[in-house]
Each structure stands twice: as structure tokens, then as C-alpha cells.
């Protein structure tokens, strides 16, 4: 495929990496000179070569990912007081059955917000891509689009790769499910969101590969020489 060709024969002035953005864990790797190079992404995790797909954002809008996100959340949120505040979200149209036909009226919507929160822990961002109505969320006073949240994780992966290699990767092959959704429009939207997130993270040349094809390809690479692992 086109993505596979770029992954193996990228121009010398571009550094290509393979990246898997997952619901629970994410990772990045460099394939070069017939070998796969992995990186330490999450020192606090059981598998440091995998970054847990967690984000913690504090009141200063500082971002933490992986196990550090969980540590920040526990340190700032454990044992603090809770203060609930009712906030008006807007109005919603209500339709109920009536004797002479439907009765239609508008009702106010409110939400309880913990105003004492020192930050917010976000996980399973990838699942939001299946919902065409989901655009983003407010995090301690700032609104984030879903692609901006995904970009936080992709940027962290890219920066850790750059620190280890001394070069910033500008090209990326992103794994993706065969289907994000059975609805073609939702599926296309999901890929477009991840592509935009990759651009926000600093990648310039972006390609996608279906995850099962990528898995089959790497299996072939690892075992084509009689079981010798790269």
C-alpha cells in the first residue's frame, strides 16, 4: 500500500515513524536499516514502551500523559473538599403525549459541577471518534476539541522519539481500525480527526494503514528469516 511504501522508503530528509494511537495504550516505533526501534515512553508503566492513553490537565492548563497523568490526578484530587455548583446548560425541547395530540414545551437543563477540582483526568478519548455529535469538552475552564486532546498524546510520543533519536519525525504512518463505524461518514470523520491531531502534534506527511494489515506485515518482517527477530 501507499502507506507501507512511505514507511519503508521515506526520503532521506524525512524521518518516518509508525504510531498506534489506542483507546488504552499508545506507542511509536522507528523502522530503520532492517530493525525496529522502540522507545521508553512511560517509565511508570509496567511496559515502559507503551504510553497509557491518559491525559491530566490541571488548572494552569498543563498537560500530563500516561502514568504521570494518573499520579498528578491522585496527588491533586485525593482528600480535597468537594464543592458542587449548579450550572445552566441551556434548554431542551420536550415532547409528551397529550389527549388531543403531543404536548411540546421547553425545559431548562442544569449540571452539577465540582468547582473545587484541581484538574481533570481524561481517558478512552478514541471512543469519542465513534460519536459524530461529539466535538469536544470543557476542561477546567478551557474548551478542547477532540482532535486537540488526541494531539496531546501524539505530541508526547513524537517528542519522546525525538529525544531518543536526536531528530524530529516529520512523517508518520498511523494505524487505524478497519472501521471506526459502520456509517461511512462517521468513519471518514474519525480518520480526519486523527489526521488533524497528527498535524497539531507536528507531523507533516501523514498516512494511514489498517491495523490488521500492519500486524501481518510486521509478522512477516520478524519471521521472514526463519524466525529471526529484528
Structural account:
This protein has 230 residues and is α+β, with helices and mostly antiparallel strands. It is 30% helix and 33% strand. It has five helices and 13 strands. It has helices spanning 2-8, 66-77, 146-165, 184-200, 211-223, and strands at 16-20, 25-32, 35-38, 51-52, 54-58, 63-65, 84-96, 103-114, 119-123, 136-139, 142-145, 171-176, 205-210. Strands 1, 2, 3, 4, 12 and 13 form a six-stranded mixed β-sheet that branches. The protein has a three-stranded antiparallel β-sheet with strand order 6-5-9, with helices on both faces. A hairpin with a 2-residue loop joins strand 10 (136-139) and strand 11. Helix 3 packs across helix 4. It is globular and about 75 Å long. The model is unreliable at 1-12 (pLDDT under 50).
